[in-house]
Amino acid sequence: MTDAAALAGRHLDLVSAPFTLPRSRVLVFREGDGLRVHTSEYERRLVECRVLDGLTVVDAAGQVLPVGEVLPGRVTFGGVRSLSEERSDETKGAHRLAALAQEPDDVEATLTFADPSTLSIGPSSGAGTRDLLTVRLELPDGSAWRYPLGDGIRIRIAADRSVTVEPGDHEAALAATARVWDDWFARCPVVRDDLREMTAFCWWVLGANIVELPALGDARAIVPSKIGYVGLWQWDAYFIAVGVRHGDPELAREQLEIAFRFPQPDGQLPDVVHEEGVLATSDDLPESDRATLRRAGSQIADPSSPVPLTKPPLAAWALRKVLEVEDAPEWAREQLARVIRSQDWWFTGSDLDHDGMPEYGHPYSSGLDDSPIFDGPLPTAAPDLGAYLVRQDREIAELLARYAPPIDAAPFRARAVATQELLLKMWDAERGRFLATGGGEAQLSDTIVGLMPLLTGSLPAPIAEALRAAVDDPGRFGLEWGLPTVAASDPDFSSERMWRGPVWVNTNALIAEGLEASGYAERARELREQTVALVIHGGGPHEYFNPRTGQKARTATTAFGWSAALFIDLAVQLSR
Q1: In the predicted model, what is the mean pLDDT of residues 86-113?
Q2: Domain regions of the chain by residue span
Q3: What's the pTM value of the predicted model, to 2 decimals?
Q4: Which whole-number Å values give the CA distances from 419 to 285, 338, 351, 460, in the listed order?
Q5: DSSP conformation class of 308
Q6: Residue 86 has pLDDT above 50, yes or no
Q7: Residue 412 contacts residue 394 (beta carbons within 8 Å)
Q8: Which fold has domain 193-574?
């Protein structure tokens, strides 16, 4: 086992981080002294995907062997190791990490994977009581089965969540799973010492969140989370690719390729690619979501007319970053053509009031679904969208110059200039901030979307300085644990409610890049340092964080893909 795998294992609590395998849909969680097993499925909650409500190993006296140490490749029963002692030990050498890879003498059994859909349980190599151990399985229907452990058993989980049990070679399963994780962790990026442990855990998160999409020819998608977000969301794919590129450029390219693979006839990219198809319009939403559009009350939100669902235009940004690590000219040209069609769609298909500045026709398309900028009527013209469009046209022009020089890049540069002029009209000089408009009405909430124009790197100096001051203002965005998604002084601020105050790693990372592009390199580095400190302090790459405590917000998902990927990207940058 590699050092990185041992470091990642310190965070595998089977609560916020389940036991799983790259490409697997099986998730194993702690349940009392034993385990429970679920599958991971698109648009289904864990409670709907129960496989085993209980999995315990029982000794000859009828005592349940407690779950002990958890590592990426195995879960132990018996031989409970004090993880608090391991974490408090100041010895950080390789010999200490090697010791973590060894089984304590009193470990009696281990669980691992035999393949992505099959669990394997068997006695540990030193257990002398293997013939006296029993495995007890509790099924969701209330029945329970017992099996003698013997030399090992395998639990096969079918697509319908049914279970079959048979004997199996447990040592071979342990070795095979170890090879999968050893190969994955061999790619873990090298970072400075204080960031190594969390980088290793974040690298585990990315590997653990890989699923196969058989309908796409066994494509590997790194999903936002196997706990609740089982699909490839367009925006998530961009951020995940930016992080995973540092260790596996091919897998990074695969994320973008899946995101770009299914454009609509007019070039619009879908919001989600999943195992059952794509989510590209409001017709793909459940009725409850269509009712939300009806309540928004604008003509464009008429539920009888499909509303396109996509994500903000950061495609060229992600494409350029992935190509920086490993060049792939032919692939780049193929993907760039799809990015250009998507960018053109924003201006032809999402400029809903025909004023030259595209709008969000649905909150989902913003990536910031619950932001108060959408409390007003739709469609919403927002400064973040304007900034992304400016940045994307410039990125396209640079990529064309590099990969397709015969194509004239001037129209993209010209459109970027025109879009920025419209973006500057959103600046409210009296309030000193950019404002979104919903259905033509100003939305006065002071939100993080108003800082995104820094990404253009070409704002007038007084405006750039005002945004930089907002980043530092402790009454607005300059909080101890990073930038809240709504200013702390705003009436809409909530420290726990999704996009209404909590800190997100992706918005922090984007604003840091905007600060650097706008000439504030040192402040950008400070924000990056603050962001990696947040993830370490909060205990992992959660979906979002309480800006007052720096801990996971109550309803946030754990082991979240883009938070893990962007932590890695920031750690690599800060280690140079």
Answers
A1: 56
A2: 3-185, 193-574
A3: 0.94
A4: 31, 21, 12, 15
A5: B
A6: no
A7: yes
A8: Glycosyltransferase (1.50.10)
